[in-house]
């Protein structure tokens, strides 16, 4: 069994080494654990840092395509490298890498095909009250559309089987997190959630230049979900 941990990156030279050094090289149930970086048109030393830290694979975009595109590029690359299970995490070391064995356990045990790490949203100090509300609202909408019980849909810390990765196609240019769970639910891919820990904030989110921008983008994403996936449609998951 081969596990590949992918990290989408855009100008992450400042924090990437910290995130990479925390990742495991051995995880029970896998004979090989490898790292893959998706360089989304970085203009700093992200690629150099990745190579110096011993990353196994670096895939680069010619320009900045956005997080969702970087995520999908990563999945395609992991599949081409023979991954049996793929873990996605962030370059800012937001998620506790020690929880990766917990994240992949439901897949190894045959209980799920995609596993989402549930952050303790209410107790994360660097999340503003507005962000906490929008995160919970997004999760509620996703639960309706996917017919699932995932409590933290915006979490980027997730694991999926090879077969699941082959079925996902993200249309949203902004973020992949909500849409992939909805697709999984509507494609009858078994979903699970596990509690995870978070680390101290190393930098502001790359997705959020301002709270106004975050609110606008979040609302647009949620509206698109209602338009495209129609979560209140009777029999939407049949």
From TrEMBL:
Classification via InterPro entries: Glyco_trans_2-like (IPR001173), Glycosyltransferase_2 (IPR050256), Nucleotide-diphossugar_trans (IPR029044)
Gene3D superfamilies per the UniProt record, alphabetical: Spore Coat Polysaccharide Biosynthesis Protein SpsA, Chain A
Upper classification of the organism: Bacteria, Pseudomonadati, Pseudomonadota, Gammaproteobacteria, Enterobacterales
Protein name: Glycosyltransferase family 2 protein
Domain of life assignment: Bacteria
Species per Swiss-Prot/TrEMBL record: Enterobacter cloacae
Record Pfam families: Glycos_transf_2
Keyword annotations from UniProtKB, A to Z: Transferase
Domain Glycosyltransferase 2-like: 7-167
